[in-house]
Amino acid sequence: MRLAIALSLLTLLAAPALAANEIIVAELMYNSPGTDVEWIELLNASQQTIDLTGWYVLDDNPDHERMPLSGTMAPGEVRLLVGDEALFTAQYPGVGNYFPVFFQTHGDTWALGNGGDGVRVYDAADNLVFTMDYDDGNGWPEEADGDGPSLLLITDNTDDFSDPAYWTTGEDWGTPGVLTQTVASEATSWSGIKRLFR
Q: Which fold has domain 21-193?
């Protein structure tokens, strides 16, 4: 009996921990050419639908206003947090999968710094679930700094989303609201969950 209990405990201890819910940044436009059309593309990289009630996003300044998220996101789904709705819809007509709150025009406004900034995602219990700090140099793709392309995640197989080795440039003006082929994972076949949410 004791041996059976001991074996059961060893099995539980050896089992991998359940993956936490993962809402990550898959693409980012922090310095578009001309008028500053900023947006953050969020991806549900987990295997479950996530209720975003109480979740929020901040830049690297904790004194800025929290941008609340809402609704649910299915596995593999992408949604956008947009800086200014009018500027965004003028540049990307037909893209409608964005949250109904805008970080450049909501309350105490904030923007994504053109010379570097951060993105933080918090869950409803104020736990930090995603963080990245980007730059316009120091190994980060400099073309994303106002030359046209977005900043695009290559893989989510990292513990450090602030490492520029995991980012590349996207298309000119980016592909907001569409999960591109560059985001990859050893645990998941993105070809199986790739979705278009325009």
A: Immunoglobulin-like (2.60.40)
